[in-house]
Predict the 3D structure of the following.
Amino acid sequence: MKIAVVRFPGSNCDADALAAAAASGADAYYVWHRSTDLAGADFVVLPGGFSYGDYLRPGAIARFSPVMRAVASHAAAGRPVLGICNGFQILCEAQLLPGALVRNGGLSFVCRPVRVRVETDATPFTARYRVGQQLTMPVAHGDGRYVADDATLDRLEREEQVVFRYVGGNPNGAMRDIAGITNEGRNVVGLMPHPERASEALLGSSDGAAMFALAAAAAVA
Amino acid sequence: MTAQARPGDPQITPELVRQHGLTPDEFSRIRTLLGRDPTWVELGIFSALWSEHCAYKHSRPILKTFPTDGPQVIQGPGENAGVLRLGDGWAVAFKMESHNHPSAVEPYQGAATGVGGILRDIFTMGARPVAVLDSLRFGPLDSDRQRYLMKGVVRGIGDYGNCVGVPTVGGDVAFEPAYEGNPLVNAMAVGLLREEELIRARAAGPGNPIIAVGARTGRDGIHGASFASEELSEQSEARRPQVQVGDPFTEKLLIEASLELIRSGHIVAIQDMGAAGLTSSSAEMAARGGVGVEIDAQLMPTREADMTPYEVLLSESQERMLVVAKQGREREVDAICRTWELTSAVIGRVTDDGMYRVRWGPAVVAEIPGRALVEGAPVYRPEARESPDAAARRGRPVPSPRPDLDLNAALERLLDLPTIASKRWVYEQYDTSVQTNTVMGPGGDAAVLRVRDTSLGLALTSGGSGRFVWLDPYEGGKAVVAEAARNIAVTGARPLGITDCLNFGNPERPEVFYQFREACRGIADACRALGTPVTGGNVSFYNESPTGAVLPSPTIGMVGVLRDIACRVPARFQAAGDAVICFGTTRGALGGSQYLSLETGEVFGAPPPVDLAAERSLVDCLAECAEARLLASAHDVSEGGLAVALVECAALAPETFGCDVDLGGGDGAVTPAAVLFGEDHGRAVVSARRADVEALLARARRHGVPARVVGTVGGPAGAVRIAAGGARVALPSARLRQIYESAIPRRLDGAGGTQLARGG
């Protein structure tokens, strides 16, 4: 099992994602954004952070990094891609996921533990969670408000592409409380909360650890 | 060759000397030292390096009285940061610095660049930054100006720290009218390193290249160090262009590049171009290494056209590092910088003649004996005399609380004071969990981080009340260290050492210098008693505005270590039915307390004295009880006294517990209000499983710490009931929590308001 963690200039959750991936038993390694080769990765993580300082718009510059062509082909081949926080923003900018992430409703950065409900188990990352299960994970973002037009939102709901929904409080004003979504192929998932920060009981929650382990298992299968 | 004036340089006149913040005596000292008049460039260099900010002209003799030794000390004061041994080969680098004046005129960039600068002091020691803490002081939030300052500062800290990926895990915020014209922004950064990875900022090896790395140099921040060394005035707003602009994205790349450079073995030394920019970084590295340097300022990469040597040398453009590399490794250094998309440029060489020489192409524009430049500033021993007003304030008797006092209303009003209330509005704007090491984040007494792949825990706190220092500088100085130690110890950690930010007014005024000298004497005595050496920090004088000086405000940043992080102790109650125990002696001290000023609108009276032996016993006792796993929770008692501490333990637990407590007292000499709200030092509120109570009390006895079971943790969503000498407070936990959580958002955003009963 090989997990590639892509590093953009300004990524800052790269080491955390690598540690969580390695803890799942995988061979986890970094891929620099200038690389055009994912080194045979089974699945790819786009970690959180501030790629290119979030200048212009979060993810707007990173989507042009050379590595993104490789990520797009990986996704097109139906292989798993997980975008966390800034990674989610990059996936939306790269149009590997529909919709966009805009400034939080409260206009401020927000960092706190939130609860999300698992809305579908039909992705590599949620396969062994139960639908309806609630997970506690931290959010830490200034631009995490998921928006899309009504037709897109309706389609996401109908096709069960909403993966996670905030419960007990929506930290950013995301439409329909959406915290994470998947693509039509169900192999690309983006979410604003940080599963890698909820991967050990010592850190207050281990609810997110399974996301890396499950993905590993699914990719093998 | 000797330094020559450049065509177009201004004439060196007494007026120009004065504008550079140098006294006539200092100027004649410079002339003697050079054996000639300085050039304009040299005058600028001296102006920066002999500023109070860089040269510690008024504080050096006092700072020398601090204890700096201990078996845990790897690096004491004098480097970019202090370094203490943690165990298992790990060490912690940490330092705190003020960014008060820039934040007063441009809160967002002032605070942001404060964080950036202190982070660079950490990673230049070879340590990876793992945490930031911030101690902030503002005026009351009832003015637009103060709300603007607080919002700007918090956003500036957040935007910078969040982007570089270093969690902001603690600090404190307090509000007093004395900070209205001059807010305080003290940022502390903490890094972890393997002991063998330590690198010092000492230039060495004549012929070795000096390389500038990172952002290009612009005209921002010129004379920032001098700006920090004068009082704020109505004209300070015009200084706004001197405030630097931060770029956390470049900083993040600098962190990675610097750590890689240090590990690569290609470099000898590295230092931030911070206050006084290229000038101080190059001169200080040379002086520490006992060598000379020769720099060609024309080779410095710039981002603006037609910059003069004067500007290049004194610019405080951010995110720039100065590296001394090994000869012949220039290409390797450049390659590492390129990997991280940073520019680097060789701008000079280490020399063996001890001179600080600056060229501009072929011309020499400055040539100064290096050691004299860095260490030759005069040392002042100003007059110190307590003002009669200060003595009168302290001597003023504290009136007895009225017997008809509504204690419930008093408690509610205390919880609604922004200084006491929840700082959630602040810390939720900071990324507190990036790097996945935060085991206990903000909101408690101290933060606790794990040290990955070890059992170690790192406890961190920063803060300090200026009130007690204002009323009694010596006792107040002891108190800020003692409180920091308690904050560390209630988590189960043992205090290791401190960094400090000493924020005072104009030291040329005898009453200010008295405050400074006495507060430092208190800090030194407390550090000796608690075994926490001072490893560095900074002095920020001239914190005055037309409305007067700030409260004398020494901020203490302390680190502690948990041998086994599994023994950490949370601040909040954990389970209904647990016993509530008070450690320490309650005498009902109301002098300088929050309660007293709530009742009278003034700050006066003698603050409680600090018994350092008792503080040491309490700290040792708490750590030992934690190691024996006898504590379910532990929380320091400070502002607002036992009543506020109990509310914080009970109502702020995730389950919003109640509690049923009888504090006793009220024996005639001490009124119920004094028992509830007095701010005696040396106390903690702890809770324990019933089965552990006897063992806990036995350990307290062995340490000579007074300990008494005062009650029981109540059920979730219960009431906080506290009896004291026949009187009692009794309020629903949910209401107390609501008041505590909404005090700051209500004032800043007009959100979440709770109507409070007035009067009482």
User: Anything to note?
Assistant: The helical segments of chain A are 14-23, 67-76, 86-93, 150-158, 209-220.
